[in-house]
Every structure is written in C-alpha cells, then in structure tokens.
Amino acid sequence: MTRQRRTATELRSHRWFGRDDLRSFGHRSRAKQSGFSEEDLAGKPVIAILNTWSDANPCHAHFRLRAEEVKRGIWQAGGFPMEIPLLTLGETLMKPTTMLYRNLLAMEAEEALRSYPADGAVLLGGCDKTVPALLMGATSANLPAIFVPAGPMLRGNWRGRTLASGSDVWKYWTERRAGTLDDCSIREIEDGIARSFGTCMTMGTASTMAAAAEALGMTLPGASSIPAADSSHARMAAAAGRRIVDMVWEDLTPREVMTTPAFENAVTAAMALGGSTNAIIHLIAMAGRAGAALDLDRFDELSRRTPFLANIRPSGQYLMEDFFYAGGLRGVLARIRDLLRTDALTVTGRTIGDAIDGAEVCNDQVIARREEPLGPEGGVAVLRGNLAPDGAVIKHTAAERRLLRHAGPAVVFRDYNDLDARIDDPALPVTADSVLVLQNAGPLGGPGMPEWGMLPIPKKLLAAGVRDMVRVSDARMSGTAYGACVLHVAPESFIGGPLALVRDGDTIELDVPARRLTLGVADDELARRREAWRPAEVGYPRGFGYLYARHVTQANRGCDFDFLEGTAPIGEPEIH
Q1: Dihedral of CA 387/514/209/345: which sign?
Q2: CA 252, CA 290: separation in Å to the nearest integer?
Q3: How many domains is the chain partitioned into structurally?
Q4: Which of the chain's ends, N or C, has fewer CB atoms near its CB within 10 Å?
C-alpha cells in the first residue's frame, strides 16, 4: 500500500528545531552542545529509542549494544536518534511484583514521547511487563513506533540435561523440598540454568508477549523468535532503526496497526503457542489503549478454535532456540493461516499475510503439523461460575490431565504469609484431592497481583509422590510455571469477591471442558458470610501505590488504570 509521505516541515520535531525563533535557537544550540551539527539534525525525523536497559534487569543486559545498532539503522535511513532511558521492570529482582509497576512504565513511555521532540519511537523491551507497558504507552501517545524484543537466552545445561529457565527452577526446587536433590546438584543447576543475556527461553510471558507483539504487527517479521545472542538479533535491531524512519515519513501509527483483527491474531498466536496466561491481562489492557474490542469471552472463543502447535516448555518439551531454528513464529502462523485476519496491517506497511508468505517449518517435532496438533484447542481456558463471576483462567496444557475435571475440599490460606507459614506443617489437613486456595493475592490484595498462583505442593504430599494438584487464587502465575492452577479469579477477594468467602472444607469443583469453576456452598450461606466480611485497609498512605490502589481495574479488564483507558486525545505541548 502506497502512503503519502510527509514533508520535513510537517514533522512534529520541526516545532522544536526547525523554526526561526528563540526556542528553536535554544534547542539547536543544545544539540550542538552534545556534539551534533546542523547537518545531523536539519529536516530529519527525530527517533526516540526508549531503552529499558538496567543492571537490575539481566534479561536486557545487551540493550546498551542493541541501542547502538538501532541508532546505526536510524542514521543509515536519514533519521536523528535520541536514546531515552526508562524505568526497567526486572522480573526476578523487582518486588513485590513488576505487575505493580507495569502501568508506571506505560505512563512514563507515553509522557516521554509526548514531552520530547519525538517523531517516532523504537521500543526496546522483552522482560515480561516491559512488552505491554511500552506498547501501551506508545499506543496512547500514538506516534509511529516499532518494537524490538530482547529475544530469549541460550538453553541451560546440567550434567547432560537441558535446563529451562523458570520451569526447571520450579521443578528442581520442588525436588529439593522433597529431599531428592542434594546441595551440590542444586548449586550446579543454579550455575547452569541462565547462560546468557535474554529473556526466559521457555514459552513464558516474555516469549509469549514478544510473539503477540509480532502477531499484532508491531515488530519486523520473525523478530520475536530470534535468540538474544544470535547475530541475527543485532541485524534485526538495525533494520528496525531503518524502518522506523520510513514509518515516520509515512505517518504509520500504532492505532492503525493495533486494530481488533490484529488483537485477534495476537490471541490466536498465543493460544497456538500454549502461551502464558499473563497474555490475557496484558492484551486486554493493550486493546483498551488502542480502542480495540477484546474481552475474556473472545479469548475463550479464539482458544477453542485454535490448535495447540508449539511443543515448547512448560506445556511441551523444547526451548526457544529449537523453536527459532524450526521456523519460529512465522512457521506457526503459516500453519494456522486460515485462522488469521491476514489483511491486518503491520509496521512494515504490508499485511501479516505478506509477513508469513514463504514461511517454512523445518521440524515437525517442535512445531506440530496442523493435521496432528499437540492438542485440539489453545493453551488457555477461561472459566466462570459462582466462584469467579467475572472470570478466571487456567493454562490447561501445562496441567496433569486427570485434574481438568476435579472436585475436592478447600484448604484456605488467607494471604501469602499464611501460606508460607503453614504449607509444610505436617499437621496441615490436606490430601492429594484437596484444592489449595490462596486469598488476597490479586491486583489490590497482593498488591500488584504477584506471581503466587503456582502454590507449592505441601511437603508431606511431595514425599508421597504428588507433583500436581488443583490450586485456586486471584494471583497470576509465571508463564514458565505449570500445574493445575486456576488464576486471575475476578473479582478478587480483597474487594469482597466470592473467593473471600471460601472456608476450609468447602467443595470446589473444576471442570475445564465445561469452563466451570464452582463453589459448593448454598446461596444463603454465602449471603451470611458476605454479611460478616469486612474489607482490609489498603497499605499505601502515599506515593505510586496510593495512586495504584485507587485506579487499578480488575484482572478481567486488564489491570490498567481507569483514567488511562481509551483513546481520548491529549494536545501537543506548548513550546514557549
């Protein structure tokens, strides 16, 4: 599609640098203070490189170098790069959870693009929440933008075994708790599980959201699957730098790309990958910024029709390196082409159908054939019932099949501290048939909806050989985690959702095929319990937590801030 190109005087940055007035004189002089000449700047699109590099985020350790490669591409295409560091969301080190701060990074990205002389943006992200945060902010600012994913790290190794970050952390630490793994072994695993920069090399939240960004059309074709340490990743970064300059001249903005059909493509891709449950919350929030239609029911409809094809841990056997060399996301999308809106526009200026033309799959063990899928439907199911009137989710492809239909007595923990104190108590009244319940772990209760949803198996059950059981919470779960874990129960218990009313011994029934989550307690008894329930105090008297507690929405609405949803325009800043 041919688009009319803008002139230099139509660039947003022209208001800062191109006028014959006092302010432009001052702005140009400051650019020269940094060593740039008039020839470097005059009439060129200013490209903001929003960089989430930090020593606190090992997944992004290579972004210092990638930013330089992006700059190279921008210079090559006739643009002027301007790197802007933003808040980093280091998944492993930031507490209580990066989810508490996703909206803060989204706000920072939006305001940075609005307040500086940016004509377009390259978004450097990858670690879980940085992907939706940057895309949410860029969508609200609605300047031309392209996303550069961090890419997955190299596979781990231990005594001839392939290790998977995240998934094998849970697996081997469980064995340590069960007494089957000695100190030497656990230290060797610790040394060998994360061998390079880059995000988790499983189909965790980072890889899922990178794939969703590509399926949305916000990356260059094939960008989401490239390992971080592969030289192809550096070339992709430079190519993104070149492409964003043309996007500015074409005035190709995120809301033109991130349409309702594009979001349905992203959901379909995530389901075919057996991707993270976190994608549900993030994609709903992103759609809210783009003015696109997406809710839990549409997620479930798309999941039911989408075959599960990617044999990647934690739902499968392989890792992201294997996935990349087998054909990557383009290979998966080519195999479900009939389920995609192939006319959806991408940042290339062409369609997603064009992006997957010619894609091949080189290993059917890693990316299953459409005729022989790993499963007949996508990796995530949406549940409803009297325990989750506004919905809950389960990654059923990562659970023991016997538990997908299960009823058992509840063992209730009122918060994470209660769980931590009692889970390994030999006197805990729990059996393999019990349903573990964690309350007060949602958006407000956590706070920030931490990844506590993979409740640990009680030690006495581990010793008896139990490795999975039904667990229910209003928390999230790492995309690298696994098990029969029902998550995102809405409304959350902290605000009086039905989960707050569950008591020890109550029967909870899970029926994934029927998409039901039911609490076996009579309505009059629930009414009595509700009458006796009292809300807790929010723990933030000031600061960002105070703002968060008053404006965050529930999981089924994406946990965005209510005042950030929508596409209402904000005027350009005055330059005086």
Answers
A1: negative
A2: 14
A3: 2
A4: C
